[in-house]
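Backbones bend. To wit:
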Amino acid sequence: MVFTPTFIYACDIAVMAEPVTFMRKLFLLRHAKSSWADPGTEDYDRPLNGRGRRAARTMAEYLARTHFRPALALVSASLRTRATWEILEHVMEGTPVSFEEGIYEASRADLMHRLQKVDDHLGSVLMIGHSPGLPRLAETLCEGRGELEVLARLAEKFPTCALAEIELELEHWGELQAGTGRLLSFTRPKDLGGEDD
């Protein structure tokens, strides 16, 4: 059968009319457990304790097994978040990182505003931050979308060094808002045989 130019053109129109879906990934990681051994240390400068370093190594092993490679890492500039990143970064070789003062003590709205500024050519972002802003952001973005058991674990507690994986159906990061995400997974150190706080 010979296809005429008119028939080909009609098919092209039909294909072009189909909606295009843009999927992005956001990974939210709370820093590993920090030390309170020195009461004179400012909160910003608290280091990781032994338990936190072990949990971060456990998470690093998990990320290595899953070939975790976000396009960008946004990390709070506090000592404990930078120390968490330093334990994880070897399994994400090549992932650019930005240490940002604005993530420290940021609210849910502050964190969302920062993510809305991410360049659109980036398909995935890892953010390492703090409670309560980070857990509240995860809950706000998903608004109950995801498997019930996974959502229940997130609602129960967002422990240190836990990782939330959120799927976003967005064309532009600037469209990020409440309810635009779906929780795909929520992995805690204790799920990997490590310790939880």
